[in-house]
Amino acid sequence: MVAADQTVRVGMIGCGGNARRHAKRLLTLDGVEIVGLCDPTDEALAAIREVDERLSDVPAFADYSEMLRKLPMDAVEISTPHTLHYEQIIAALDAGLHVLTEKPMVCSVEHAEAVVAKVEATGLVMGVSYQRHGMAPYRYCREAIGSGAVGNCHFISCWQSQNWYGSQVPRKTWRSQMQWAGGGQLNDSGSHLLDIVLWMTALKPVEVFAYQDNLDAEVDILSAIAVKFDNGALCNFSVVGHAVNFHEEIALFCEDATLAIMGQEVWRWEDETNQVVSGAALGPTCDPDSNFIEALRGRQQVQATPEDGLAVIRLTEAVWESGRTGRATAVKY
Q1: Beta bridge partners of 127
Q2: Contacts within 8 Å (CB) and 24+ apart, 165-171
Q3: DSSP state of 305
Q4: How many CA atoms lie within 13 A of 39 on its CB side?
């Protein structure tokens, strides 16, 4: 932990567009200083310095291990290609640093289990940047289900559409290359969809049947996924990576109510008439960076944990296996 009156010194591993959004949020927080920048490209380092004049003279490194060796820090935030997360997380924890990593946490169950064990052994704080955990509509649904107010959840229907193919594949971005991404849309923005359903419902998936289509890419673009949970509940995940728009909807069918997340609102049916819950009635919202810093100070719990990251990759690996074999696949525990 970090004392309440102590400045939290943060190093950024990866300085691309996503890291720049994290840096902007960090720099709004009292008692936080970004003390190191790491990226292999000069362009990314130059771009993150433009975020705020306070970053103009911050030491920069091409190799994260050099930054870990040379700079006194309390924590790092990792925003790098997915397949690099594991070695960077372990190295940071070995250096005694708290960690906030972008999603997906890692790209295999083996690595996820190792991260969970390492965090437990070190006692350090680690979060995963699944920002929906801090967003009011999802928190409202989690509370409604967890409290028993809507009864058991027995069916979930959810989908996400995005022009992922068009934005990634023609340009041959790292997200479209297996060696860096570890998978396609399912392992990228689709990871948020799997995560938030698991987190809101606290259900344990036990079997998956999936169709996937890579189109002409190295990685998956379209995923049609059916999941069975240990309590018998069923779920359809549709991850549509070749669409003209971004849109996401989730409907949770429970014994005593139906909850549907529609943007920043929750539509709640307890009979034929729906109630629209919005604004303050949904409760507070927080972002991953402020939550991480507050967790370091012992004032909050991390909202998205390594165990959440493990749950997502368990389900993701089962989807990949089912898509590859064309058979129903058990989720391995």
Answers
A1: 100
A2: 165/215, 165/217, 165/221, 165/241, 165/242, 166/242, 169/215, 169/216, 169/217, 169/221
A3: -
A4: 23
Domain 132-285+305-330 fold is Dihydrodipicolinate Reductase; domain 2 (3.30.360)
Burial of 224 (C-beta count, 10 Å sphere; 0-12/13-18/19+): middle
What is the rounded CA–CA span in Å between residue 186 and residue 91? 26
8-state DSSP, 176:
G
Domain definitions of the chain by residue range: 8-130, 132-285+305-330
Separation of alpha carbons 82 and 104, rounded Å = 7
- Are 78 and 102 a contacting pair, CB within 8 Å? yes
- What fold characterizes domain 8-130? Rossmann fold (3.40.50)
Two tokens, residue 123: 């006692």
What does the DSSP 8-state code read for residue 96?
A: T
- Tokens, residue 301: 């719990």
Residue range 281-300, pLDDT digits in tens: 999 999 999 999 999 999 99
**Does residue 312 contact residue 102 with C-beta atoms inside 8 Å?**
no
Q: For residue range 179-206, what is the model confidence (pLDDT) as tens digits? A: 999 999 999 999 999 999 999 999 999 9
Q: What is the pTM of this model?
A: 0.97
DSSP 263: T
**CB–CB of 318/329 below 8 Å?**
yes
Q: What angle do CA 194, 159, 153 make, to 5 degrees?
A: 65
Is 167 in contact with 202 (CB distance < 8 Å)?
A: no
